[in-house]
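== Fold encoding ==
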Amino acid sequence: MDDDATLMLAYARGETAAFDVLYTRHRGALYRFLLRTARDPQLAEELFQDTWSRVIASRARYVPQAKFTTWLLQIAHNLLIDSHRRKRPVATGDEAERVFELTASPEHEQPEHVLSEFERRRRLQLAIEQLPDEQRTAVLLRLENDLSVEEIAEVTGVGRETAKSRLRYAMNRLREQLAE
């Protein structure tokens, strides 16, 4: 059992400090996933809050069948799908720019590399934005959260081969677009 699952079980027993650790540990990655997937800061904030509310509400029923991050991202993904079903959001160029601006640069970058790194990340972000929804979700789960194909399948509720195919098509499209 991973450390996060142990913390979630402790939280289920009433140890609120365990939740604080989980929240601190996963809030950044969760918010980035939601923001980059939803492409709408207001929706991402709403889904972020809803995801943590669901974690809190389901603490007594939590069973560590998968990694905590997989479970957390699955909740977020399901909320995102529900949101898409209600209203399909459309990202504008300004929203894509704000998403990119929120992507933190590594602190160890040298000043002379900032512009080239910025351009590389901008091209990657634009290429990811052009992917179909299913492929974009798969690639973001892989790149942003380092999930395996099996975990991506679990989060998105599809079979392993479907997740693998979506990831492969997405990576091929990204390679093609970035090679131009």
